[in-house]
Amino acid sequence: MIFAYDGHELAVAVADLLDRPDDPSLPIHQPWWRQSLALGVPGIALLHVELAAAGLRPWRRAHRWLSAATSGPVTAGADSHPFHGAPAVAHVLACAAAHRPGAYARALDGLDTAIAADARARVAAAHGRIDAGELPALAEFDAIRGLAGIGAYLLRRPSTGDELRAVLECLVRLASPLQRDGEVLPGWWTGSGPNGRADDRFPGGHGNLGMAHGIAGPLALLSLAALRGVLVPGQLAAISTVCSWLDRWRSDTAAGPSWPYWITRAQLRAGNAATPGAQRPSWCYGTAGLAHAQQLAALATGDPVRRVAAGDALARALVDPRQLAATTDSSLCHGYAGLAHLARRVAADAPSGTAARLDARVPHLLGLIDPAGAGPRRTAAALIAAAPGPGLLEGAAGVALAALSCSAASTPDSAWDSCLLTARPAHHRP
Fold it and tell me: Are the C-beta atoms of 44 and 65 separated by less than 8 Å?
């Protein structure tokens, strides 16, 4: 199925149906609604900001949604994280301010102060945990709840440079091995299961490779910071350490390289993991997120071989019928929209031949969002009505933003997806 209309048409259709944040058909009474970038108002506001910046819809709509996000107290500190509370709201305001310099400055100053304080507290706790020889929780370092996600926000804010460097220093320490029960474990090995809780299926914990909850998030942040000239001692070595870990667990299949979502303690002891069956090659887990993180690492360290391999891995995954069949929804997080968006992001920094292969897959991936050819309005309505709702990660707003990013109408160098650690680096090595 080839996409029959430009991506901006779907984005506009979604936004037009999500006109007002007080619409009673939306989950406006849920406690998370106003502050959840993943599920609620900030993610939808982000869509309106990008459409306004592209001149496709008025700024007053974007401002209406931004006002809704800031209409009450914003959660900060330990009860917040990159996709809820102060960092979530600040991300959207920062995106708006990037398009309208000087706007929302007072609100951003207050949020930056709160986020910087939270970053310092998180870093201190992480150093204390490392000093005690304890294993981390996923939420300490990951992109959704932890330091990788906090660092992604700090990276774009000039007033938080000291806190950014502190986060980077902490993630460099995360790459150093730990001794536990007489075994040497990677520093990001967690004692829990992939859901962040104790799990009998994971005796001895696991090593998570994913972008959302695993070591690919810190890898992407360390690489993006290096590409922007922000370096702390040991940063490039930490990037190489994580890349070596990913190389260790890569399986080379007929359909291209594949990585497991995680490694168990038994697999670590055995030194090998069973070749995974067909997995969805998504942003959160799988080839798409890992390919982009490794491409960033290659650009940061000047590794042309890894740069080529990363783009090729994604290009091959996107023509593999089994991997595409394992992808069963349209979402930004783990669906067709996310694959299309990452294909464009990786293509932008891939060698020309690989870039052409990736770009050629985008219309097909977008077409899978509307396989029946229902058109933008009906497709938008179906996306909004589908569970879990209209938000960024798994809902209509994220699909719309990905479709817009694949459109000729998108804003050049937009960083709306910096919260996913997939925004294109502002300056990178050739």
Answer: yes
Helices 304-317, 352-367: axis angle to 10 degrees equals 30
Residues 355 and 308: beta-carbon distance below 8 Å: no
E-only strand ranges, 245-371:
251-253, 256-258, 262-264
Reduce the DSSP state of residue 208 to 3 states and report it: strand
CA angle 279, 392, 212 (to 5 degrees): 45
Whether 157 contacts 94, CB under 8 Å: yes
The residues pairing with 199 across neighbouring beta strands, listed in sequence order, are none
Q: Report d(CA 307, CA 365) in Å as an integer.
A: 23
**Interatomic CA distance for residues 321 and 368, integer angstroms:** 13
For 3-45, how does the pLDDT look when each residue is reduced to its tens digit (9 = 90+)?
Answer: 878 999 999 999 999 999 999 999 999 999 999 999 999 999 9
What pTM did the predictor assign? 0.97
The residues near 308 (Cβ < 8 Å, ≥ 6 apart) are 350, 351, 354
pLDDT tens column, 140-177: 999 999 999 999 999 999 888 999 999 999 999 999 99
